[in-house]
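Dear Dr. H.,

I hope your travels went smoothly. While you were away I took the liberty of generating a structure for the chain from your last submission, since the lab meeting agenda had it listed for discussion. I wanted you to have the full record in hand beforehand rather than looking at slides cold. The sequence, exactly as received, is reproduced here:
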Amino acid sequence: MTSESQTWSSNGKLLITGEYLVMEGALSLALPLRVGQSLKTERNNNSILHWQANKPEGVWFAADYKLPSLKSIYSDDKILAEKLNRILLAAVDINANFLANSDGYNVITDLGFNPEFGFGTSSTLISNIAMWAEINPYHLLQKTFGGSGYDIACADKTNPIFYQIVNNEPKVLDVDFHPVFKDNVYFVYLGNKQSSSDGIIAFKEQSEFTSKDIDSISVITKEIVKTRSLYEFEQLLIEHEQIMSKILKLPTAKSLYFSDFTGVVKSLGTWGGDFVMVTYDKSEDKLRKYMQNKGFDTVLTYDELVL
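The corresponding predicted structure, in token form, is as follows:
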């Protein structure tokens, strides 16, 4: 016996300003993306939670869990199945009624982007499971991966947001950020997926910053939203990179990969290999040729990616 299906969906994200320092109270600018992840459930009557996760190329992984214990009885990727199991157990811990009956479920998730891209594979899953379990997604995030929560805030948004943690609580404000120079803004994948949790640990262990640094990033965030000049936008990005490079004790992406590039390069998210945002005032074809010559084939325009 089956019943009607239910579907939830969440948007991916990019953090434009405030990486790392968003956890320390810096005001940050985040953008929800056109791509995200959906989760569809349908009841079955065999007391099994059958999970199939799809990515753009096809099936990503599959796993079966016995209900209500959530004991794993099958998986074709042990690491991913254990990660999913932890999220589901955390959801049950928050809401004891979730998955408590003996009915089973067939679940299909569809990820709309390459999971290596760092667009929010985990956060969109957390958001969707939280909606299914009828729990607070921020609580589920803190019981699983941790982090600032800006990605959770983007999951149900269709416009740019300011995100800030104030007194340990997330503050989300819709902002009008539709840069007139967006045709000069691109996103380039560096090809080395970074672990957000590892990056956070390294930041907490190695970084050195002051309240002045946090305030400086907050000011840059406000100015970036206000500016209508590509040149001013670029100068703010350069200042942001310099501050974060000093705090993280890491070289900037431009100095590592694009020292001869005439535009500006800003790291996004965990430094070291996810996407970078670049500005370029010449033709898109020239930018793509430059990036291809450097070995970077994934170049997305602002309108291709941002909602």
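Two observations you may find useful: Residues 230-248 form the longest helix (19 residues). The longest strand covers residues 28-44.

With kind regards,
E. W.
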